[in-house]
Structure formats: C-alpha cells, structure tokens
Specification:
Layout: E1 3-6, H1 8-15, H2 19-30, E2 34-38, H3 39-45, H4 54-60, E3 63-66, H5 70-83, H6 88-96, E4 102-105, H7 108-118, E5 123-126
Parallel strand pairs: 1-2, 1-4, 2-3, 4-5
Organism: Protofrankia coriariae
InterPro entries: PIN-like_dom_sf
Protein name: Twitching motility protein PilT
Length: 127
C-alpha cells in the first residue's frame, strides 16, 4: 500500500476525536504511508470559526490535498455515468486512488462501485 485516501468520514472521525482513527493514521505515517485527499473533501468537513477544528487542521498538515480541476471534474462525471452513481465528491475521491491504495470512507458501497467502474485495484475500508 502506498497511500490512504481519505474521504470525509475519516476527517469527521478525527474531528470528533475518534482514537481508533487517530491511531490508524499515526501507524500509517510511521510506516511511510502517504495520506491523500482533495480540496472538495476539505470543503465538506471544514467549518472552523476561530480554532474550533484544531485536530482537523493538524491532520490537514499531514495530508496531500489534491486540487479538483476541470479535467478531474470531467473524469469524475464520466465515472459517475459508468458506475450509475450521482455523488460527485465520491467520484473525485475514487479517482485519487492508485493501485494498492486503501480508501477510508463512511460510504464504502458507493466508493467501491466507483473504484470498480474505474478499474482501480484499491481497497475500500469503512471508517
């Protein structure tokens, strides 16, 4: 495994102080496993007003936050059509995965369908 791809569920778990998720992410980093997400996922979870999401801000310093540009948007739209799905954010998360990666999500069914439709050999894990 080269990276853990983080969907909103992983960030929400950290924001809520979920010790199991925090431990999972620390172990991954200790083993040289990258953390990856995208800017749209950050928009889903970021509600900070004056330092209220310190744990989330700390996690974001360790995450490669990829941009979502027009090309990614088009690829996500094609993937949604192929998978028969409608959640654009989930499609952008699926497209972040590379062979051997693991995707942490609270929506494993939809993400797994998208990963399969994209023919990406990644593992989807419920967080």
């Amino acid at each position: 495994m080269t990276a853990l791809v983080l969907d909103a569920g992983a960030f929400v778990a950290v924001d809520r102080g979920d010790r199991a998720m925090l431990a999972r992410l620390r172990v991954a980093q200790r083993h040289g496993i990258d953390l990856r997400s995208n800017a749209v996922v950050v928009a889903q979870v970021w509600r900070d007003r004056g330092g209220q999401q310190a744990a989330l801000a700390g996690l974001l310093r360790s995450v490669e936050v990829c941009p979502v540009d027009e090309q990614t948007g088009r690829r996500a739209g094609v993937l949604l059509g192929r998978a028969g799905s409608s959640d654009a954010v989930d499609a952008t998360v699926a497209l972040l995965a590379r062979p051997g990666d693991r995707i942490l999500t609270n929506d494993p069914g939809d993400i797994a369908r998208l990963v399969e439709a994209a023919d990406i050999p990644a593992t989807v894990i419920r967080c």
